[in-house]
What does this fold into?
Amino acid sequence: MTYNVNGMQLKTKREKVFNYVKEKILSGICFFQECHSTLDTENEWKKNWNGQIYFSHGQSNSTGCAIAFSENFNIKIDENKISKDNKGRVLILEATYDSKKLLLINLYNANTEKEQLEVLSTLCNLLKNHNPDGNFHAIFSGDFNIIFDTVLDAAGGNPSLKKKSLAKIISISESLDVCDAFRVCHPNSKRFTFRRKNPSLQRRLDYIFLSNNFQEYISKIEIIPSFMSDHSPVIMKLDFEGKIERGKYGWKFNSCLLSDDMFTTGCKNHKSNKK
It folds into this structure.
């Protein structure tokens, strides 16, 4: 699950949100954004969660993100491979689950494009501490604070694309070899994760980008009703063992193959042989 909680400094809210998340992910991972966590409250939050939880702290009234694991989730975190910024917007963990190496990346992006580019630059620098090509399966998740499509990802207001931020996130996603899991499973759905009443608008700002190698294991991904926040959580289920029912999917061509000489030569030879 990825979930912008809109602040959890208040203990009563934090306990309710934690209980809500635990009910939704009985065995798994939650990427929290806008936690408003601080170093002073870290131990108390760990007790409230009652499981493994890692922080990139912000301030008591802004930013902060965390990655939390349900109590019975058998995952091993490499404590020597944790990267975070000093503003509570980026957190990166390396982990092993079921012999699979995972690179977990939590992003709480800024609002303005100028600030976003600074945050994304920080993310790129922190990623240098890791090796995405080292047989890792990346899960790149969080509140990206951008839309990818003005029609499918927005309603109301005057939606526009933050093109520089968008290009940077696409570049990062390509380097991590990840895809927008919700859009892969729901290519034409208009669903939103953020709502504002005055003026009325809706946006899809929260994402789970998943390793392309894990696409076949997605059994379900959906945007669920919000709880004590102006954002709705995105929740995804991966099934590594069971047989997943497949619906109708569109065929997509990987245009990167056109720059592969072996591929293009093979296509030409195949066409010649058919003649």
Summary: The two ends are 52 Å apart (CA to CA). The chain has six helices and 15 strands. Helices lie at 11-24, 42-49, 113-127, 163-176, 181-185, 261-274.
